[in-house]
Amino acid sequence: MDSTVLDRFKNIHLIINPVSGQGVVPVEEIRSKFEVLGERLTVHETLPNLSARTIAEEAVSGGADLVVAFGGDGTMLQVAEGLIDTGVPLAVIPGGTANVFANELEIPNDKMEAISFLLNKEANIRKIDVGCVGEKHFLLRLGIGFEAAMTVMTDREEKDKYGFWAYLWTALRVGSRMKQAHYHMVIDGKRKMVKGVTCVICNSGNLGLPRVKLLPNIDVSDGKLDVIVVREASLWSAGSLIYHAVKGVFSKVKPHGDRPCYSMFSRQAKEVIVFSASHQVAARDGEDVGADFPLKITLKHNALLVLAPEIKGFFE
Prior knowledge:
There is one protein chain. The chain is α+β, with helices and mostly antiparallel strands. The chain is 27% helix and 32% strand.
């Protein structure tokens, strides 16, 4: 085996969520793939009373210099919360219903390909921003209104059975009933009121496919939040979002400042306070945070280290 980034680490902890997403998790196969690391590796499995965050925190306290995690976006958030500002990197093996964080970093979606990448190729250690809502964190985004309802209201069994399509079905059921709310915000000290069906405050804008984002200049390492308000639940709004997402894949130009669009409002910021939103539900990375407004959203710049492939040109 050629030299890889894993050769730099002497105390590696692998955290496996054995009930992550659809189908049976091949726990023993994942374990066996990492046997080549020998005594440098310690393997853990999450339990109902033992969270991935707790395992990660205990691993760091025990001298871990790398934490590898298998699971969905929820598992990655838990592990990340145990690693923020510690200087201990996270390596991602995608599992679960959704792997948006892995797609953001262009980590292979297939779990065995991701493991092969870690064991056989040279990875970069990338610095990643982490969003904060109060004392809680998010890697992807904080959603208020339709986006939050879509993730919170999707049944766990449906997610496990149908994956992405379960969210789409919820969107179709809920979207037609969503009414516009008044989002009263302070964005970097400036007051703003915007009407819309959903407000999304992004660290990552990825939509679940590599390089496909809500807007092309959303980046998990730029030290900025992206505030997006979709004004209405309509085919026009959906088409506009799809247009911006696809355009971002093929365009190397990153727009600056406000991006005018009839169906959405967007702006970059370092701090956002949402004072009210007509009692709409809010969720961070799909986890309900209630509607206890005001919500203060900030960003920890370069707070998390992640092993990721070197990003090359799209057509290379």
